[in-house]
Design goal:
Elements lengths: L5 E6 L5 H14 L4 E5 L6 H10 L7 H25 L2 E5 L2 H8 L3 E6 L8 E6 L3 H5 L10 E6 L2 H5 L12 H20 L11 E6 L4 H17 L12
Parallel strand pairs: 1-3, 1-6, 2-3, 6-7
Antiparallel strand pairs: 4-5
Helix pairs in contact: 1-8, 2-3, 3-4, 4-7
Bound molecules: ligand Z5A.
Ligand Z5A binds next to helix 1, helix 4 and helix 8.
Length: 240
Amino acid sequence: MTRAPFIVIEGLDRSGKTTQTSLLQARLEREGISTKLMKFPDRTTTIGQMIDSYLKSTSELDDHVIHLLFSANRWEMASTIETLLNEGTTIICDRYAFSGIAFSASKVTTTTTTPSSSSSTDATTVPKLPFEWCRAPDVGLPAPDLVLFLDISPEQARLRGGYGEERYEKEEMQARVRQAFKRLGDETRTSSPTGVAASGKQWLVVDAGRERDEVSAEMWSHVELLVKGTLTSPIGKLWN
Ligand code: Z5A
């Protein structure tokens, strides 16, 4: 039995994920390939509306609670993802579980101390949520066949439109998120046969600081191989 591929686009804020997922969808449709665009958070569901109001700072939630809501927002689409792939619809997904881990694991508590021998203060940051705790709720979700990580420096991202409107859009946070994504990408490339990298599944870094057309051309070069090939392997499970 053959199935369609599951392609995830990840990246920092303003790296151009929305722009590039739309360009990719248009390209796939021009090639006659049936495609479904998904985006997480999916702000249209009841859970998604809670996430939306948290991101816009119109509500406050405990860090554990919002993390679990982001994951629940993906689980509510998990069976739809599997059905679409098995029916032959290619899925392009704007953010997925990797964002879930990278953002939550980058939240820190900062403590400042003033050593008695000095007049300056030392700042220590401690993660609020352990990395592995952040991964746990997403274990078992449908695994992507390809992750394209759109890489952009926080400085470049800040120069793009709309930056700074939502909760996590602060440079220090974005720098930590970038490191967390790097860790996820590195482990995916070197993971054991049970990881996302199994069966030729890939995490590829794309320089998103270039012109739109250059970025989309590189993305297409990676996606074309996958969508024009034949996938017979069953849909994988994340981190199982
Ligand atoms: N989050 C989380 O914490 N946990 C989770 O599990 C998930 C997410 C799934 C909202 O995500 C927040 O949720 C996000 C992560 C967290 N927080 N932060 N920070 P979102 O995906 O809904 O929102 P976003 O990350 O802010 O995405 P965005 O606004 O949609 O940005 P984008 O999609 O990466 O970029 P864009 O909209 O395509 O482009 C941004 C601007 O740059 C726009 O003006 C474009 O015209 C311009 N642009 C795009 N490409 C280029 C190039 N190549 N050159 C120049 N200008 C460009």
